[in-house]
Amino acid sequence: MNVRRSAAVLAAVAVIGAAAPAAADSSPSPSPSRALPSALYGDGDPQYDGVWRQSLALLALHTVDVAPPKAAVDWLTGQQCADGSFAPYRADTSRACDAKTAVDTNQTAAAVQALAALGGHDAVTDKAVGWLKSVQNTDGGWGYTAGGASDTNSTSVVVGALAAAGEKPAEVRKDGRSPYDALLKLALPCGGDGRGAFAFQPGEKGELAANADATAAGVLGALGAGLVVEPGRSRTGDAACAKADDPAQAAANGAAYLADVLAEDGHLTSALAGAEDQPDYGNTADAVVALAARGATGPARKSVAWLEENAADWAAQSGPAAYAQLIFAAHAAGADPRDFGGTDLVRQLTATGPSAAQRTATAETAETAEKKDESDSGFGVWWFVGVCLVAGIGIGFLISGRTKGRQP
Q1: What is the Cα gyration radius of the chain?
Q2: CB atoms within 10 A of CB 57
Q3: Are 163 and 169 in contact (CB under 8 A)?
């Protein structure tokens, strides 16, 4: 059997397996007069998170060895401004970006991480990294927008982008200060409440308040890690908070803080003024990735188990970035994203992308090619499918091809 026919069958099977109802996105629906691009993941209004959620979706698919559609990748690269930056969403990319274009560091850094992982987009990522370097603050960090006060989350996602692009974050400096200098200033000392955690930003008087979301990001940033981390070996010891003289100790302190917060219920809690406390699914997933990156596999697995039991409805309501976060958490903790509490996260994420009609057309094209090859070679496609089914008994098979539900 020739390779072309085998690839066509695998592509068709992958397409059929992905044809599930699209999950709803939590952001407002666009007006009827403004249709969304067919290559965009999610069906909510992309004006605040289009590039972010697209980047997370592509990165998550790559992480589980699924090649994302070319159109989806092209949509992302096409969103870049001439100076290398990315805005959340540009409906008309034929118009050049200007001072009114709301570019930001988070969308740009997320796009870099996704495109660097996919490979073949050096021109895009090099320009994006150049822009990120150009807007680095004098304390070594980054704010959400160019010139904004440095915060832990933005600095950390940029660190991940630098590392993904082959840069050494410690050597990316402004006025002699690196991103790690900025992160160390945002780490709480070991005495008092929230010891070892990271703050999002200092308060008006320079005070630091522990923030679990920022701590999850800060641990990754201090370790020089991105949104995706590989399952690592469990580390024991040095769980006690110690003076953070270097990024590694700050990461250890932050991980210990997260483990303590997660110890009781296995999840973080979102406290909003005037509302009852609710489980925070997205930041719990981020905390799992941070703990796994640090080697705190025990707490990470406990929280993954909680997410497996409880996060399906949240992800269905929140859309592609949420599915991506859960895939990152499952991957980091060694869980199976294709059987995550009975949910196939990969299939659900794929279903939020290019339309089912497009996937059906792709499958039909593959089937037509199969019939032609079949008549040319004398081998039947169903013979190959039968072999796959037989081989799959007992061992299964993975169709491979090898990107913060939270809003930035």
Answers
A1: 22
A2: 28
A3: yes
CB-based contacts of 192, cutoff 8 Å, min separation 6: none
User: What gap in Å lies between CA 118 and CA 273, rounded to an integer?
Assistant: 41
* Angstrom distances, CA of residue 237 to CA of 60, 159, 217, 240, 294: 31, 26, 22, 8, 12
Produce one character per residue of 246-266: b if its CB has 16 or more CB atoms within 10 Å, e if not: ebebbbbbbbbbbbebbeeeb
Per-residue pLDDT for the chain (408 aa), expressed as one digit of tens each?
332 223 333 233 232 233 322 233 344 444 444 689 999 999 999 999 999 999 999 999 999 999 999 999 999 999 999 999 999 999 999 999 999 999 999 999 999 999 999 999 999 999 999 999 999 999 999 999 999 999 999 999 999 999 999 999 999 999 999 999 999 999 999 988 899 999 999 999 999 999 999 999 999 999 999 999 998 777 655 567 999 999 999 999 999 999 999 999 999 998 776 778 899 999 999 999 999 999 999 999 999 999 999 999 999 999 999 999 999 999 999 999 999 999 999 999 999 998 544 544 444 444 444 444 434 433 333 333 333 333 333 333 222 333 333 444
3-state SS, residue 177: strand
Token digits of residue 5: 């026919």
Q: Which residues contact 287 (CB under 8 A, 6 or more apart)?
A: 212, 215, 216, 258, 262, 268, 303
Helices (H), 311-380: 312-318, 320-333, 345-350, 356-377
Residue 360 has a CB neighbour count (10 Å cut-off) of: 13
